[in-house]
Design brief:
TIM Barrel; alpha/beta; binds adenosine-5'-diphosphate; 691 residues; plasmid; 23 helices; Rossmann fold; FAD/NAD(P)-binding domain; eight-stranded parallel β-barrel; 3 domains; binds iron/sulfur cluster; TMADH/DMDH/HD_second_a-b
Length: 691
């Protein structure tokens, strides 16, 4: 019941121009790797947010014309009327659950690569496109600008036809023409669209006015605007031109959706920005300037913070991308006073990585994200048990915890055995490293729920042997025993162990267990993994006063973190912490005098004196218990399954997903599960579009 728990203000309706949001929970546009390539999947995912109580559910950015082609990325597309039915799938799903549907129209200017359409790239000025590719934008002439305005009008008309309630003009993230024209960094024009701020705002103003005219009161018009580029005096600043833009356009949109640019600043991870609501200092002025409703973001998961922001008049609507991904039912849980059940976003940006890879969205906390349509998974519902039987889950890392939780949700009696003194596995271990504290939420949320269950028994300090497992006579066993980092140097670059002797060698597991390398000389971290953990540990050890050298075969540190929008911050922060970085080098050998590295291209050796070595190369699956059970006791079990990192080392998100999948598939015919992998959106052979 709204009001019952002190959060009633969050459930007040908000008028947005001609439409009304039923409450203050607003899912702002966010990418998801589905878009025009997988429209049914996107519709189901957006519909789930509406079912979970969000008042407004938005698309991701929607290309309005073939000159704004973001392929191969799977954004939304509204080039012509053939794209309307796919988008209508989403508006229907969102409306079914009483929410408003918003669409973020975008022309991406020189951010678009036009690889698919091979159209010329447009921009305010001549200049290279955003990505490294030998292609440049041409400065738009007056005819180009007139055309752009017509394309926006046409897209708004189609958006209305597709059933959207709110239509966006998008001037954010440095990703659209509206934003490019606003920023002197991109706009060096000398005509009426360049120079003074009034001139640079002209295009956004025209787009707003013409979209409003086109929609004629049938839909609200929103402006997504980045008030600050977080570059200090080198970019737009909230208290200077950012504020001036809001003052100039104050009453023109029906809604202000405000944030910071670029995307890596807007979607900062907890590793670099642990503070929920970190964007508030930038956007809090907006409501003082306009009478229109304002939505802002900043990884909001705390209803207390949300309530205070609304009460103090900072925001009218609580915007969320990642919190709505981690928990599509966040509003419902607040409304029903189920605060402890909220799956809080951990700020890891694995969701973002999927968009950057062009594959369907996934989430560390919410394994059902992206699976709503293709697997029919619901974040809050799971099929009840088929038979009266029970299960043993061995290991309480992300895979074991999720598997145990979902089995208990299905109604099975579950025993969870953990060798360590605390539950949580790698979620707990990794959260002890500097910057990763929020990752503990993966364990906390699941543990809290498991502790409420009458059908779950949980034991720490219980390293299970095969004989002990067999003696328990539990017919269904899930081995979620995890993996360990290798100490011998084998991994991606060398399948054989490396010749190392005469100096102490550590692994990430040692550091996570609280050990530190000796302080009497530099520690060389060899990062052949190239994901995130070596960079995190380099930071951790530098903070502990160690002299750190990080060598990697990669050209940059933690190359994987490009996908999570963190790489520049990783490298900058390591340089600032005094870590010596040696890229493009492989470890050849090490002895008491130090390490010998070899150039990744020529093999030319380079001596690097160090007192200890920390190997971050690859992991070994901890599958011995499972192998023994399978070899000697298989006849005792109906189910014996290896899951998570013990089956296939990967991300925490992969382990959670594996645990969830195992619980969903439990008591399902394996042949049927294999035949029915997931539903696919097959390409139509109709040849629609064009003439
Ligand atoms: P995952 O990511 O797959 O969940 P983790 O490494 O996070 O894997 O967790 C594996 C957990 O399994 C660890 O907490 C470890 O202590 C526990 N474990 C490993 N072997 C046993 C065992 N024989 N008995 C009980 N717990 C075990
Ligand atoms: Fe949050 Fe990580 Fe899930 Fe993204 S993947 S929504 S950052 S928990």
């Amino acid at each position: 019941m709204p009001g019952a728990n002190g959060y009633s203000i969050l459930f007040e309706p908000v008028k947005i121009g001609p439409v009304t949001a039923r409450n203050r929970f607003y899912q702002v546009p966010h990418c998801n790797g589905m878009g025009h390539v997988r429209p049914q999947a996107e519709a189901a995912m957006r519909g789930m947010k509406a079912e979970g109580g969000w008042a407004v559910v938005s698309t991701q950015e929607t290309e309005i014309h073939p000159t704004s082609d973001l392929g191969p990325y799977a954004e939304n597309r509204l080039w012509d009327e053939h794209d309307i039915p796919a988008l209508r799938l989403m508006t229907e799903k969102v409306h079914q659950h009483g929410a408003l549907a918003a669409i973020q129209l975008a022309h991406n200017g020189h951010h678009a690569t036009n690889h698919l359409t091979r159209a010329p790239v447009l921009g305010p000025c001549d200049g290279p496109i955003d990505t490294v590719f030998p292609k440049q934008a041409r400065a738009m002439d007056k005819e180009d600008i007139r055309n752009l305005r017509l394309w926006h009008r046409a897209a708004a008309r189609r958006a209305k036809e597709a059933g959207f309630d709110i239509v966006y003009i998008y001037a954010g993230h440095q990703m659209t023409l509206a934003h490019h024209f606003l920023l002197p960094q991109f706009n060096g024009r000398s005509d009426e669209y360049g120079g003074s701020l009034e001139n640079r705002v002209r295009l956004t103003r025209e787009l707003l006015e013409e979209t409003r005219e086109e929609l004629d009161g049938h839909c609200a018009v929103a402006l997504r605007f980045a008030v600050d580029q977080m570059k200090g005096a080198d970019g737009m600043q909230a208290q200077e031109e950012g504020r001036a833009v809001v003052e100039m356009l104050a009453e023109l949109p029906d809604l202000w959706d405000v944030n910071v640019a670029d995307w890596s600043n807007d979607s900062q991870t907890t590793r670099f920005q642990p503070q929920d609501g970190f964007q508030i200092p930038y956007v809090e002025f907006v409501k003082q300037v306009t009478s229109k409703p304002v939505v802002g973001v900043g990884r909001f998961t705390s209803p207390d913070l949300m309530t205070s922001l609304v009460s103090k008049g900072v925001l009218d609507l609580i915007g969320a991308a990642r919190p709505s991904i981690a928990d599509p039912f966040l509003p419902k849980k607040i409304e029903e006073g189920r605060i402890e059940e909220i799956r809080e976003c951990i700020g890891c940006n694995i969701c973002v990585s999927a968009d950057n890879l062009g594959v369907p969205i996934r989430c560390t906390q919410n394994p059902t994200m992206g699976e709503e349509w293709r697997r029919g998974w619901h974040p809050e519902k799971i099929a009840p048990k088929r038979n009266e039987t029970n299960a043993l889950v061995i290991g309480s890392g992300p895979a074991g915890l999720e598997c145990a939780l979902q089995l208990s949700n299905r109604g099975y009696d579950v025993t969870l055995a953990e060798a360590a003194p605390e539950f949580g596995g790698r979620a707990l271990r990794e959260s002890r490293l500097s910057g990763l504290a929020a990752w503990k939420r993966v364990a906390d949320n699941r543990l809290w729920q498991l502790q409420q269950r009458a059908n779950v028994q949980m034991f720490t300090d219980s390293p299970m042997t095969a004989a002990e497992v067999a003696d328990l006579e539990i017919p269904n066993v899930f081995a979620a025993t995890g993996s360990r980092w290798l100490r011998d140097g084998s991994g991606r670059s060398s399948h054989a162990p490396l010749p190392v002797e005469g100096l102490p060698v550590f692994t990430p597991d040692d550091i996570m267990a609280g050990e530190l390398p000796p302080a009497d000389g530099p520690v060389l971290i060899y990062d052949d993994d190239q994901a995130y953990i070596a960079g995190v540990i380099a930071h951790h050890l530098a903070a502990a006063g160690r002299q750190v050298i990080l060598a990697t075969p990669g050209a940059v540190v933690s190359a994987f973190t490009e996908l999570t929008l963190e790489q520049a911050r990783v490298q900058t922060s390591l340089i600032e912490a005094g870590v010596e970085i040696i890229p493009l080098h492989l470890l050849q050998s090490a002895d008491a005098g130090g390490a010998t590295l070899g150039c990744a291209y020529t093999g030319r050796p380079r001596a690097v004196p160090c007192a200890s070595l920390l190997m971050v190369t690859a992991r070994q699956r901890d599958a011995a218990l499972y192998e023994e059970l399978k070899a000697n006791h298989a006849h005792r079990f109906t189910t014996l399954e290896l899951i998570g990192d013990a089956a296939s080392p990967g991300l925490i998100a992969d382990a959670v997903y594996a645990g969830h999948m195992a619980a969903r598939n439990f008591e399902r015919d394996p042949a049927a599960a294999d035949a029915d992998w997931f539903r696919r959106e097959l390409i139509s052979l109709n040849g629609m579009g064009g003439s």
